[in-house]
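Quiz preparation item.
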């Protein structure tokens, strides 16, 4: 079942990119929703019922919802900004749920917090020199980037300290998610968007979510 879902996710991502390119908005939305549904199903299959497992699955569900909302802004242009903001907030909730798990098993959460704050400040200063966004999106972006960077510092800290299969796969998924978001933001709000960057960031995003979902098969050591 898992190999089939992973393959289906990859196929749906490819179909999404194709239908998006030819301007089929409804078909693109369906393909994207199916691709995101795949990583949610992988999470449910791999989950073991523990609190940490349930929190990560909820994070995957919020990612699924966010993917739909973000794409709906192309269909309902009058409410595009609102849908985009709600989608970002949904992603943010997902990151916070992932972060809660990473922090709960961390031996040194304070070190991860300090490192995350420092990296977030430098990353946002670097990014905001290269993009142009509204004040509202900038405020939401600060919170969003801060959350995902904190997730990464906590996840990488756990990987270094514990070196278990779960912490390694979870950390890799978080890193790919972060890189995908950075590419997305720069490509959307920076200079002229490039199709190649779009393909790369979407591929990294889905790979990251799939890895986070698959990590649940190895989370049995944590409650």
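Solution:
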């Amino acid at each position: 079942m898992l190999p089939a879902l992973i393959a289906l996710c990859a196929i749906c991502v490819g179909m999404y990119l194709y239908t998006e390119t030819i301007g089929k908005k409804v078909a693109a939305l369906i393909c994207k929703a199916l691709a995101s549904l795949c990583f949610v199903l992988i999470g449910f299959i791999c989950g073991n019922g523990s609190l940490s497992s349930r929190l990560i699955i909820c994070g995957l569900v919020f990612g699924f919802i966010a993917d739909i909302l973000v794409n709906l802004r192309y269909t309902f242009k009058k409410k595009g900004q609102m849908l985009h903001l709600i989608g970002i907030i949904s992603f943010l909730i997902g990151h916070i749920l992932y972060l809660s798990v990473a922090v709960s098993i961390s031996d040194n959460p304070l070190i991860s917090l300090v490192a995350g704050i420092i990296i977030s400040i430098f990353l946002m200063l670097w990014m905001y020199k290269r993009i142009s966004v509204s004040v509202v999106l900038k405020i939401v972006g600060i919170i969003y980037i801060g959350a995902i960077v904190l997730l990464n510092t906590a996840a990488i800290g756990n990987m270094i300290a514990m070196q278990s299969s779960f912490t390694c796969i979870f950390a890799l998924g978080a890193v790919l998610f972060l890189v995908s978001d950075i590419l997305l933001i720069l490509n959307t709000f920076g200079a002229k968007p490039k199709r190649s960057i779009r393909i790369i960031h979407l591929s990294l995003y889905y790979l990251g979510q799939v890895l986070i979902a698959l990590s649940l098969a190895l989370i049995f050591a944590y409650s």
